[in-house]
Design brief:
With about 425 residues, the chain is an alpha/beta fold. It folds into two domains: about 5-205 and about 405-415, 3-Layer(aba) Sandwich (Rossmann fold), CATH 3.40.50; about 215-400, Glycogen Phosphorylase B (Rossmann fold), CATH 3.40.50. It has helices at about 5-10, 15-25, 60-75, 85-95, 110-120, 135-145, 155-165, 165-175, 185-195, 215-225, 240-250, 250-255, 270-280, 310-315, 335, 350-360, 370-380, 385-400, 405-415, and strands spanning about 50-55, 80-85, 100-105, 125-130, 150-155, 180, 200, 230-235, 260-265, 285, 300, 315-320, 340-345, 365. The strands form two sheets. The protein has a seven-stranded parallel sheet with strand order 3-2-1-4-5-6-7, sandwiched between helices. It has a seven-stranded parallel sheet with strand order 10-11-9-8-12-13-14, sandwiched between helices. α9 (about 185-195) links the parallel β6 (about 180) and β7. The chain is globular. It catalyses: lipid IVA (E. coli) + CMP-3-deoxy-beta-D-manno-octulosonate = alpha-Kdo-(2->6)-lipid IVA (E. coli) + CMP + H(+). Involved in lipopolysaccharide (LPS) biosynthesis. Catalyzes the transfer of 3-deoxy-D-manno-octulosonate (Kdo) residue(s) from CMP-Kdo to lipid IV(A), the tetraacyldisaccharide-1,4'-bisphosphate precursor of lipid A. It is found in: Cell membrane.
Length: about 425
């Protein structure tokens, strides 16, 4: 069997994990907190019977928030356990907790750590958000009789091919799931190929998110006060900002004609991106320094968490981060729901269905290069009539695909057994 060999490798890699956590903790102190939990060692006591939701990072935690709202509407006294893999995910998840809820790191995927995790928390059901399926975790839940499901499930062609290459390891893991609830029919077909039991195609939870109306109102007021159209680079990734700032430095009209707003995907890169802009001769005003309206600068830097609705409301158009390098793109649904037109690059394989649907609905434009994206976004932002039409298409697109949260929560509680 291959899983014992995998377990041996994972156990042997634990010193490397500790080293990685120390290194990442220099930039993100959250990685240095509760380190023993990574190895299945948890303090205190835990009452059994919680609904356990694993949201590895920021995007999955935001999807979990939508599901949690619906779960609490359907079962108001439900207590949850939230687990995460990244510091940003855990920080975001802390805001979702209510009295009686718990939060922890998901342990490293060794049989011993998984056994300790399940023995300590004794969850009623486990919910993995979107993609996180680990062999020993799946096997441990099956052995302990904890139903484990994959919710808001997506699987790209690339990930499917990787899973099929490691079928002796991945197929039992997917097969141990009690159910997988897919975002799309294409995801469902790919999940079946890797061995999952697909219990339904429920859609994408992120369509059910409602942008914070206070953030929307503030963002629109700041956009109106800016005196010129605002173009945003949303959830930008390493390498993409360099290309943008080089283009702005080379063509001063691009920097002068509109107000640029850059919101990096990862908070540990805020300082790096600010310094990068300044090296290109661009002045920077950071959100963290605004006491009222944004301060004048070539580039506004969105260096805060939990304010994407504010940033989208500030923007007349947005470039989609992660889509101009082969990184798979970012979620564009929140942009559409906030009435912000999107210009995306060629690499959207992590959100292929949503990206194609948005393009077909006229809510997003696709271009081949970041240079084309800059020109297209500027042209869209300065054309008020066209901008309004694309923004309206985005709002209609986001509204048309709602309902995944209700379907997912209902199926989850049915499988867990309602109290």
């Amino acid at each position: 069997m291959i899983r014992p060999f995998y377990s041996l490798v994972m156990s042997g890699a634990q010193p490397l994990l500790r080293h990685k956590l120390r290194r990442r903790g220099v930039a993100e102190p959250g990685y240095l907190q509760h380190v023993d939990e990574r190895f299945g060692l948890y303090a205190g006591r835990s009452e059994p019977g919680r609904i356990w939701i694993h949201a590895v990072s920021l995007g999955e935690t935001r999807a979990a928030a939508i599901l949690l709202d619906e779960l609490r509407a359907q079962e108001p006294d439900a207590h949850v356990l939230l687990t995460h893999g990244t510091a940003t995910g855990r920080a975001e998840g802390e805001r979702l907790l209510r009295p009686g809820d718990l939060q922890a790191w998901l342990p490293w995927d060794t049989p011993q750590a998984v056994r300790r995790f399940l023995a300590h928390f004794r969850p009623r059901i486990g919910v993995l958000m979107e993609t996180e399926v680990w062999p020993n975790l799946a096997a441990g839940c099956l052995h302990e009789g904890v139903p484990l499901v994959l919710a808001n499930a997506r699987l790209s062609e690339k990930s499917m091919r990787q899973a099929l290459r490691l079928a002796r390891l991945s197929r039992p893991a997917y097969g141990a799931l009690a159910a997988a609830w897919a975002q799309t029919e294409a995801d469902a077909r790919r999940l079946v190929r890797v061995g999952a039991r697909v219990g339904g195609v429920f859609g994408n939870l992120k369509f059910d998110a409602s942008p914070d109306p206070r953030q929307l109102a503030r963002g629109r007021a700041w956009r109106a006060a800016s005196g010129r159209p605002v173009v945003m680079f949303a959830s930008s990734r390493e390498g993409e900002e360099q290309a943008l700032f080089a283009a702005l430095a080379a063509d001063k009209a691009l920097a002068a004609g509109v107000q640029w707003l850059v919101v990096p995907r990862h908070p540990q890169r805020f300082d790096e991106v600010a310094a990068l802009a300044q090296r290109h001769g661009l002045s920077v005003s950071r959100r963290s320094g605004w006491t009222g309206a944004p301060q004048p600068a070539d580039v506004w830097l969105g260096d805060s968490l939990g304010e994407m609705a504010l940033y989208y409301a500030m923007a007349d158009a947005a470039l989609l981060g992660g889509s101009f390098e082969p990184l798979g793109g970012q979620n564009l649904i929140e942009a559409a729901a906030s009435g912000c037109p999107v210009v995306m690059g060629p690499h959207t394989f992590n959100f292929a269905d949503a990206a194609q649907l948005a393009e077909d609905a006229g809510a997003a434009l696709r271009v081949a290069t970041i240079g084309e994206a800059v020109r297209s976004a500027v042209a869209l932002a300065v054309d008020a009539t066209r901008q309004a039409a694309v923004a309206a298409a985005g709002l209609a697109f986001a509204s048309a695909h709602r309902g995944a949260a209700r379907r997912t929560a209902g199926a989850l509680l049915a499988l867990a057994g309602r109290r």
